[in-house]
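Below is one such protein, fold included:
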Amino acid sequence: MPNPALQLTPLPNIPLVEPGDDLVELILKALAQAGIQLLDGDILVLAQKIVSKAEGRIINLCEISPSVQAQQLAEQSGKDPRLAELILRESRQILRVRPGVIIVEHRLGFVCASAGIDHSNVIRPGEKQGKEPVDKPDPKPEDWVLLLPENPDASAQAIRSRLETATGARLGVLIIDSHGRAWRMGTEGVAIGLSGLPGLVDMRGWPDLFDFRLQITQVGVADELAAAASLIMGQAAEGTPVVHVRGFPYPLREGALNELLRPREQDLFR
């Protein structure tokens, strides 16, 4: 049921987020500046980075002591042994390794590169707006990395609950990251946490244009929305980590990440 009225609007003036920042207050302020009043059925899409930063998931590699397994993984991949150690800690299983690439099953259940650990757009805590930096043993930018949120579904639920309380609207919240895909080159936005919207819409039994009943069609609507929002957010220095969505073409309901995770026995790539 496509809806040509689907609107995605990046929220302005979201500042650089640091551990302990109140994302809900930042979002409400940005909505007011954009002149947007939240309505029933609206969705807020958040970049994973701001959620991770607010939750304090920033790690200095100088604090990490690599294990023997991490050192072996680093030799295979050419990556920093300290980063390899974090990848091991964040993963259920290492699936593929080659120079420059480590593919894992993340502890959250999805398959991704480097357990979602990222160097880009990560600053030393306290560096924004002239704050005194937190005392760390090594301030080199490349030593700071960002892990995914501990529980993105719970993060989305907490943000949604406070936004609904503040506005009285029935909302959805989607947390997204950029992942590669098995069949194609390039990364795209995917859902890693959600609350108040479907992850998957099962269209089996729906009629097509000629009244044939669909047999296998299930649509990853949260990933479709994540990809659209990611296109607006950008991947580099755009600075627009929150997107307001209106006109989502499916009814809102309670949803969770596990709807989108393919069962291991159906995964033809492992």
Residues 68 and 124 are 28 Å apart (CA to CA). The longest strand covers residues 172-180. The chain has a mean pLDDT of 89. Residues 152-167 form the longest helix (16 residues).
